[in-house]
């Protein structure tokens, strides 16, 4: 199983980024997918989750209305659209399906 995140980078406060998570070696459409983040010195927290068909989504309260999780089962890819980013959201963002994790992608929100 290979999970590869991309799309992270440096963005100014209030800016946007779109993260992608490409999955291979796993029946992607059979599993819910999630995004987590881990800030320096802190634990790994759930950001958003989407059911296997994409019809049901859940978000951490802190990102509701600003982040959107989605998936394309035909491309085995999970996405996280992040808008109105805040400096405190600087973290490594991880993609998760079942027990499998990607290596993470760094998001830095700073002016």
Short characterization:
0% of the residues lie in helices and 52% in strands. By secondary structure, the protein is mainly beta.
Blueprint of the fold:
Layout: E1 2-6, E2 9-11, E3 17-24, E4 33-38, E5 44-50, E6 57-59, E7 67-72, E8 77-82, E9 91-97, E10 100-101, E11 105-109
Parallel strand pairs: 2-11
Antiparallel strand pairs: 1-3, 3-8, 4-5, 4-9, 5-6, 7-8, 9-10, 9-11
How many whole angstroms does the radius of gyration measure? 13 Å
* Low-pLDDT sequence parts: none
- Helical amount among residues, as a percent range? under 10%
The CA-CA distance between the termini, in Å, is 37 Å
Query: What string, H for helix and E for strand, traces the elements in order?
Result: EEEEEEEEEEE
Mean pLDDT, to the nearest integer, reads 96
Note the overall shape: globular
Q: Tell me the major beta sheet.
A: 7 strands, mixed
Count all strands and give the number.
11
Estimate what percentage of residues fall within beta strands: over 45%
